[in-house]
Amino acid sequence: MSWNAYTDNIVNSGCFDKAAIYSTDGAVWANTGSLNVSPQEFQLIAGGFTNASSVQMSGFHVENVKQFCIKADDRSIYGKHEQEGVMCVKTKLAIIIAHYPAGVSAGNAANVIEKMADYLISVGY
């Protein structure tokens, strides 16, 4: 299975309209829906997994849109902007970043992305 199959599954869940998987060093492994995360945005998100206060206090940006941080720990960083949001989950070797549009339950979206992360972890990624 190609890496894009994983991001396709995230988007096909109906909870997200864009999803990408990056290596922890920032290389793009897969992208569905043209999620454009700049290197600077990625570095801030990646740093948030080891220093949650860096995103908790000032939020973070994805596609030049500031996200208000609603959760940040060593596994997951969730942000919200108006009725939309971004969820980022770290696995052993990757970071999944996905955008959910207005009208989607954040709880349902979290369930989808966290299960994908659990699966990737279970197969060594």
From TrEMBL:
CDD domains named among the record's database cross-references: PROF
A GO cellular component entry from the record: cytoskeleton
Keywords: Actin-binding, Cytoplasm, Cytoskeleton
SUPFAM superfamilies named in the record: Profilin (actin-binding protein) (SSF55770)
PROSITE patterns, per the entry: PROFILIN
Positions of transmembrane segments: none
GO molecular function: actin monomer binding
Protein location: Cytoplasm, Cytoskeleton
Main localization category: cytoplasm
Family matches, as InterPro entries: PFN, PFN_euk, PFN_sf, Profilin_CS
Entry similarity comment: Belongs to the profilin family.
Subunit structure: Occurs in many kinds of cells as a complex with monomeric actin in a 1:1 ratio.
Function: Binds to actin and affects the structure of the cytoskeleton. At high concentrations, profilin prevents the polymerization of actin, whereas it enhances it at low concentrations.
Protein name stated in the entry: Profilin
Organism: Pichia kluyveri (Yeast)
